[in-house]
Design a protein that fits this description.
It is built from 18 helices and 4 strands. The protein is an all-alpha fold and 415 residues long.
Length: 415
Amino acid sequence: MGATAKATNTITRKKYATIFALIGAALILISIIVAVAAPKDQVYDLWMYILLVGIVTGAYGVFQLLRKEQHSVPVEFSRSNAKTFLTNNAIMIALLALVVFIMIKEPRFMKYQVLLDIMTQASPRLIIALGICFTLLIAGTDLSAGRMVGLAAVLSTSMLQTATYANRFFPNLPALPVIVPILAAVAACVLFGVLNGFLVAKFDMHPFIATLATQVMIYGACSLYFDMPPNNSQPIGGVRPDFTVIGQKKIFQNIGGSTFVGISVLIPIALITCVIIWFVLNKTVFGKNVYAVGGNREAAVVSGVNVFKTIMLIFILAAFLYGIAGVLEAARTAGATNNYGNGYELDAIAACVVGGVSLNGGIGKIGGIVSGVLIFTVIQYGLQFIGVSPMWQQVIKGIIIAVAVAIDMGKYRRR
């Protein structure tokens, strides 16, 4: 009886793939109907979102259909599988529900410009999260990330002000090539990354304590630098256009005389960074060593993994990414203060955990980190969009973090 019931809940992968392909095609057709027939002032660019979901769904179905060797493999539908799916994707489902609620309450949220703004804001945060994920993969953390972002922002902007700006940080500094201050800012972060890695790898210091000490150190050093005369802790402004273009340039803008506002250059930069980090984690010996050290350090040592070298490289690479993110954030906002990046590390850690990076180490994927960063950016942007109090925003973010960690710990206990 049990075997028969199980069989009735099983279909071939070919049929499973066909269902997804048909759903994708149906969504694409619906998007065309909405674009043509629905009132523009009520649904705005909703058709684009439906089209995007349709393309992704259909592409997944087609991809599964092309894997002919898997066609005979059964796909089982059961209550336990459904429960596992809902548990693993609870945060994403909640996000979709929130987005639908915001769209109903404020239809202007359906404009594609809103999506581009969200992705632009998320791009530097995503690079920070990609850096911090390495430390989480070895069951550690990095509390110095946000302060490194601020350090990179202050150092780069202080050397890239226009000659005519009244309150120049270095009044007599000649115009430097843009790349020089950028490299200096990133190099300063890397030096602190070396310190983090050395404290953790050499003295077996817990990353929480090691990076907390470094965080305080960085903030103090950055504040001393920021307070140097003649600046005296004044916000750094008057940043050169050849630097701000790195964070403010739009691509595909007004192509062929269209009114398209363009895509921020930060978005492709973040996407390229994702591809590189994905390759590092999945296709290199270093990446495999990161997962090995995070999964079981003793077993990694027995297997011949150089744990000291791996941990050092983890914190150096993470600091490099923080430096890049700090430079991009300074270029986007055309200025900096010593408080730039404050709290960014906590948002990055939360985004990684929500995206499926385990606090117990050894588990985490780039796709999950991207979704985690987007979740928090959508929450922040969307709730501001409908006028929700910042205090309630913090409450909601806290609930999401608590639920995500509880789910993660539950999965760990089951394993």
